[in-house]
Design brief:
The complex is a heterodimer of chains A (162) and B (555). Chain A has 162 residues and is α/β, with parallel strands linked by helices. Helices cover 30% and strands 21% of the residues of chain A. Chain B has 18 helices and 20 strands. Classes of the chains: A alpha/beta (162), B alpha+beta (555). At the A-B interface, α3, α4 and α6 of A face α1, α2, α6 and α9 of B.
Amino acid sequence: MALLKGGKSVDDAWQRIDGDEVLPETGPVVVDLSRWQQDRESLIARADAVGVRLQSDDDPESLAGDLDHLTLIALDFPGFKDGRAYSSARVLRERHAFKGELRAVGDVLLEHLLFMHRCGFDAFEIQSDDPERDWQIAVDDFDVWYQPTADGRPTALQRRSS
Amino acid sequence: MYRYDEFDQALVTQRAKQFARQVERRLAGELTEDQFLPLRLKNGLYLQLHAYMLRINVPYGVLSSRQLRKLAHIARTYDKDYGHWTTRQNMQFNWIRLEDMPEILLELASVEMHGIQSSGNCIRNTTADEYAGVAADEVEDPRVYCEIIRQWSSLHPEFSYLPRKFKIAVTGSDNDRAAVKVHDIGLRLYRNEAGEAGFEVFVGGGLGRTPFVGESIRAFLPTRDLLSYCEAILRIYNQLGRRDNKYKARIKILVHEMGLDEFGRQVEEEWERIREGALTLPDEEIERIRTHFEPPPYESLPAESAAYLAKRTQNQDFATWADQQLADHKQPGYAIVNVSCTPIGRAPGDISSGQMEVMADLADRFSFGELRVTHNQNLVLTDVRQEDVFTLWEALISAGLATANHGLISDTICCPGLDYCSLANARSIPLAEKLSARVADTSRQQEIGEIYVNMSGCINACGHHHVGNIGIVGVDKKNSELYQLMLGGSAEADASLGKILGPGFDEDGIIDAIERIVDAYVSLREDGERFIETYRRLGPAPFKEAAYDGTTQGR
């Protein structure tokens, strides 16, 4: 599994903590939502960065008041046909102005990168032999968009009236 | 009609190239069939019983002669020389090879056409009244807003992996010819008391295994808020719609399980957050799109053409056809002409490449080069001078397109059924052909009057059997094809769902039963009463008695 960020394969410094696993002394950790809710105070008190991993049926609203404490939110695609995390991403970015890393995890392929990016994801745990090539192919597919999202790509309407 | 600008064209061409790559990756084994499936579906490509089927969008049913000629070319070059109009105003080709798809999509892109989102769990082609822009009873032109929805819904990054497919329809007239109440979102365009244009919004309608008539979720939505409101509905649906069972994944089930009030509350809450945002439609953009739907350069003509009236008197066959196929035009001296693609004894909606060429030529000669596809799987020439109607009729006769059955019993809606479809339990096309052959006589059909017969080969209801005045659905019982009969459905403004009449019939038995039901109606109706009205007045009892009279079917 490779981590793709800013179009480049990068090392993943984050350590994933499943359920009640013991936390490492140091280093950034990603916990699931129930762990976050249970150990919120001690997690906030850690010196290193903390992230939360949401399942596709977790409500992103449940993190609305905690975003200042989170450096990363991972949104899970249990299968690529489960598109709930596209909405979760837009809710976090656009409704709550989350500025940290929004990471797509789970069943992530080349063919999904561009729409994910448009919805606000900026990091991808992708199954691929050559993630950087995949990224280049995916973002080169289209340069016309009708939908305004927070990704900053100008819409056809904005370009028509400019 | 709407013509692409550089941005629209670029998107469709880029999409064709993207799919060429995806096909290449599939053929090279870089994508599994499971991974490829949603990608090909979002380009309209299904795998059917015998071959790939390609569904091509005809946006809200509006088609130019140039586009129709391209479809004829594709039918001849890549298929078996015919195509099929669908109940959602699209075209289907039934014998496509995967390897040809990249080329076909580029051909389509060259005439501003595509198969984007004609299938898959995403927002499908938006449909509209086939008389949009010309109907005498129209309040506002729905095509303007259909085009706005088309653009917003195309490659929507958030809504491309919905729980299930999503269909939107718009009507601009009180006589709903777009069946908006059986869509996921139905929009009724009207003017409020202050004279402002807006929509009544219906949600949660749909057919399939669990049919629902859509309910009104908002009485008046200003036109500038169309997209933010649709986005709010889709976001709630995408987040909360069921994904555990594909048969319970449509928005109608969500609305039903949450209740309309709670669903509506959540939509309004989301809408309040986004309504003043970037989706608000600028007046200039609505006007820019409206300029594409300006009326064609009509001539000033008297309300009635003397030449047309004279031909009617001289030629009884012509008068009979005209009575059935013409509808009132808002422009004096012009007529809306319905062209039946459901001839007696033939599959509803099939059209040969030769007939497509003829229709394209006739559109150029008589109707400003434009055509419409109807949800009844027929065609319309919207702007024909009355004085040209006779010449047009003669040309239609030569092409085998002059059947006079618009809105009559032989003008059935029918799905592909077991002859093509991998889901079907029973054949539907041969049944439609048989019924139509049984009631072939035009004067008898006209005596019976308006009656909508809809047939599906299985409970998925692609033939809209729930909203046929008479609905037929194929079921599989002990490995033999059996047909159930429903009465009382309607897709019009007063939409209703049909109810099963009783035990099912075999193929011949159901044709006999329909004939007896129709005979009962004719003897029971009061002056000017349509079938649906008689049924609503009397209920199922007399029809049930007629249907099962003297038979042992299903007992």
